[in-house]
Amino acid sequence: MSGAAVQSDRPPTAVEARTFDGIIMFGGEDWWYHNRGHYDMQMAHQLTRYVPVLYVNSIGMRPPSVGTKAQFFKRVSRKLKSLRRGLVTPRDSHAVFSPLAAPGRLGRFATRHVMPRQVRRAARKIGITRPLVWVACPPAEPVLDAFDPVGVVYQRTDRFEDYLGVDREEIAGYDRSLKTRADLTLFCSTHLYEAEKGGCRGALFVDHGVDFDHFAKMASDPKWEPDDVKGIAHPRVGFVGGIDAVTFDPPLFVEVARTLSEVQFVLVGSCSLDEGWCDLPNVRLLGQRNYIDVARYMASCDVLIMPWNDSDWIRACNPVKLKEYLAVRRPVVTTWFDELARYEGLVRVARGAEEFAAAIRAAIDDPGDVGAGFERVRSETWIGKREQVRARLAELGLEGVRA
């Protein structure tokens, strides 16, 4: 399926029918310790209605860095726990597998000779022999031929080569190859889609979805408030997500929290920053919570924030939490990223700590028309996103059938 890249927003008029009996999905995250709101995880869950799906936990894009000893050993420990699980079937037609894989150039050489055999064996156990291979982790590109895929889907949801600590040249090479090989490259960022669709064999913009009913349910009923925030005074400002140096802007956040000393800040998510990065008395770091519970934490706050750093990664991103924030009917304050152009008037955008703090104060005093944001995301369900993908695959002649 390799060849010269051509822009292909629409499929050809006549295609050869190809049937697959399941999907092998090389995920960008680990099912057992990452938030289940991610694009690939949600699509895996949705697609099991039609065919078996084997979700392969991330094989990694960067070698582990020591950083602080505590963080290094935490990462190694959780990965080892994931590996010990082996093949697990959380529900019918859906399995999760943690293969032995090593990131980095040297690790990739060993991985491509060992990992495919493990994955093929796991796939056969749930009845997948003619797979559609879905790639959300670019380092899976070198092993695609080992699966003799009926078709290939590449999930280009972020600018992977800009992720902190990766081998940019290596990841960019995988990205180029996947775009020219994949039957369909999926984008959820209009910034990336417009910039890169011309280099794809086939391209489609399918935005993030949201578990609208679940998040909306938490919007107005105080009985859902988590026990560990009930004692925190209002006004409360919340952030839910990874607290790291890749996306989050620690200096900006600390300056804002220091300025708004009368406001309580509630941060929910795993943190990879050095201990003591923020020791302000009005900041509570509650740690990571299960995906099913994050809506409760969002709804327990008066304002929700996205204090992103200024980077190429962020400018090309489309965080799923934006829709989740809007679905719980809370005012949103964020730094700029390009996708916000489609949400004009629905969120408050701030540049710099002074503007950010002022925007939070304004949102506390006057939440504004939160119903408009709520209605904006009402129809953005993951079921709808799944059907967009299935419809395009069908146009390309790719049909899923159960064995």
Q: What would you say this structure looks like, in words?
A:
- This protein is of the alpha/beta class and 403 residues long.
- The longest helix has 22 residues.
- The radius of gyration is 21 Å and the shape is globular.
- The N terminus is likely disordered.
- An 8-stranded mixed beta sheet has the order 4-5-3-2-6-7-8-9, with helices on both faces.
- The two termini are 25 Å apart.
- Strand 2, helix 1 and strand 3 form a beta-alpha-beta unit.
- It folds into 2 domains: 212 residues, Glycogen Phosphorylase B (Rossmann fold); 166 residues, Rossmann fold.
- The chain contains 13 helices and 16 strands.
- Helix 1 crosses helix 13 and helix 7 packs across helix 11.
